[in-house]
Design goal:
By secondary structure, the chain is mainly beta. It folds into 2 domains: 41-309 and 361-498, 7 Propeller (Methylamine Dehydrogenase, Chain H), CATH 2.130.10.10; 310-360, no CATH class. The strands form 10 sheets. A 5-stranded mixed beta sheet has the order 14-18-17-16-15, with no helix packed on it. It is globular, with a radius of gyration of 22 Å.
């Protein structure tokens, strides 16, 4: 053993010896804002200096400001009208200096949107141009940059803009800030990805969904429908790599799922021949021994536009008998017959039946490496945990009253929001399940994770869309907290995170 290797091992052992004894976090609901209605609370950002939460309200086209100084007694918001700037907000973030950035889409959504900058009192300061359908934004590099994921969603094959990312290099004098929007044309691609609409160039088919800053001047961008992520060079404002995430083998026991809403209840089993597309939505990052890692919520999404509608049920499309000798058995409604799958990716020869079965989303969250490589996946855990914690709500929809097993044929619990944070010297991932409504807490240790707690705030809070971690030092309670925005109920939920 070399001296260098021995020194490294001794250093690691010393660091581990300093780590606290194992223990779980506990999630407890503190309170919710008054119910506003569907699409009136989608994404939230928190400003510790003013103890305010800034929440996007797409239904009313407003930025709603809530007083969170006491999360147990939350009142109505102050609304900032966004109609002078565009057709509706999709994302919000707050810098340490009190700049509030809002991503606003245009009408139609294929036109160029904008980023609007406010102070924490709601005064408008500046507008910046963005790409088509700015869907998410985040401050990066110690607030020197603002990164915007422009989804570029299509209305039809004739009105399908390219997805892009806008990089705004901020100056203290906002008027001197620079703006660069970059797409995916010509970017090297590796791994297994897909074209959702066959015949469409990748740069046009890819739709940037979410961004998280990592390390070494890079960020990772989820390209949900194409089952890939893009590596972004922040300073140069361009993509350097696209990495396909491959497919999840649901024939393995660790990747089991319940694929039917017509099988009499909870039946989580492996299914040979069924493959899941990870298709991550939200992404967040953390550091372990100096290396950046990313966690993704693998929600899944189908392409739906004029001329390209790929979602259908296995039983309605039918399976190729040569590829699936047991096709008749699999097409039964209690088996895979009710499962929603891709007809474009699953039918490469275009003969009208499925040669491979690709379901949307992986019903999981994953850990990716610095350049987007898949390192770990939660397998069937989210579905199994939900079944154990609240079997009476298993795979509910996000509306009330729910129905047992209702979403098993379509993405199951549907993990959508994710964030990371440190509690008691440990790093955790918090995953929001959009449909059933549960919030999962997982401890992160390098490229692996272990489950610790689960909380569901139904029926008051429905359809968690986003989750935002607030550290103990920033929290008004003096303890770590989550802000969960619930799209269906229009509420923002404060959750205590106690070690």
């Amino acid at each position: 053993m070399t001296k260098r290797l021995l020194l490294a091992l001794l250093t690691c052992a010393s660091l581990l010896a300093l780590a606290p004894a194992a223990g779980a976090v506990e999630l407890t609901k503190l309170g919710s804002t008054p119910a506003q209605g569907e699409a009136q609370a989608e994404i939230a950002a928190y400003d510790p200096a003013t103890e305010q939460a800034f929440v996007t309200n797409a239904e009313d086209n407003t930025l709603d400001i809530y007083d969170f100084s006491d999360p147990t007694a939350l009142g109505d918001p102050v609304a900032i009208d966004l109609s002078p700037y565009g057709a509706g907000p999709n994302s919000v973030d707050v810098s340490k200096d009190g700049l509030v950035a809002v991503a606003v889409e245009a009408d139609p959504i294929t036109a160029a949107g904008s980023v609007e900058i406010f102070d924490t009192d709601g005064n408008h300061l500046r507008s910046f141009p963005a790409g088509s359908l700015p869907d998410m934004l985040t401050f990066a590099e110690h607030d020197r940059y603002l990164l915007v994921a422009n989804e570029g969603e299509a209305l039809s094959s004739d009105d399908d803009p390219q997805g892009s990312v806008t990089v705004i290099k901020l100056n203290k004098k906002l008027s001197k800030s620079t703006v660069r929007t970059t797409g995916l044309a010509g970017v090297p691609r590796v791994g297994e990805y897909r074209i959702a609409c066959p015949g469409t160039p990748f740069a046009q088919d890819a739709e940037p969904e979410y961004i998280s800053e990592g390390g070494f001047g890079t960020a990772l961008v989820t390209l949900q429908e194409t089952n890939a992520v893009g590596v972004l060079d922040i300073e140069r404002g361009r993509f350097v790599l696209v990495r396909g995430l491959g497919y999840k083998d649901h024939g393995k026991a660790r990747n089991a799922l319940d694929p039917s809403d017509d099988d009499g209840g909870i039946n989580i089993n492996p299914w040979d021949g069924l493959e899941g597309m990870y298709q991550p939505d939200a992404i967040a990052s953390y550091t372990w021994f100096g290396l950046p890692y990313y966690v993704t919520a693998n929600e899944g999404d189908a392409r739906e536009r004029d001329g390209c509608e790929e979602e259908d049920r296995v039983g309605d499309v039918g399976l190729d008998p040569a590829a699936f000798p047991n096709a008749e058995e699999l097409e039964d409604d209690a088996a895979l017959g009710r499962l929603n799958v891709s007809t474009t990716t699953g039918d490469p020869d275009g003969d009208g039946d499925l040669d491979r079965i690709f379901s949307f989303g992986a019903r999981s969250f994953s850990i990716l490496g610095p350049l987007g490589g898949l390192l770990w996946d939660s397998g069937s855990q989210l579905e199994r945990i939900a079944a154990a914690e609240e079997p009476e709500r298993f795979n509910f929809s996000n509306e009330e009253p729910g129905e047992l097993d209702e979403r098993s044929d379509s993405k199951g619990p549907e993990p959508e929001g994710i964030d990371v944070g440190t509690v008691g010297f440990r790093t955790y991932a918090f995953v929001a399940s959009e449909r059933q409504g549960g919030i999962y807490a997982y401890r992160l240790q390098g490229p692996a994770a272990s489950f610790e707690d689960y909380l569901n705030a139904r029926p008051e809070d429905l359809g968690p869309e986003g989750v935002r971690f607030v550290s103990r030092s920033d929290s008004p309670t003096g303890r770590a907290m989550l802000l969960v925005t619930n799209e269906i109920s229009g509420t923002v939920t404060a959750i205590d995170v106690a070690p």
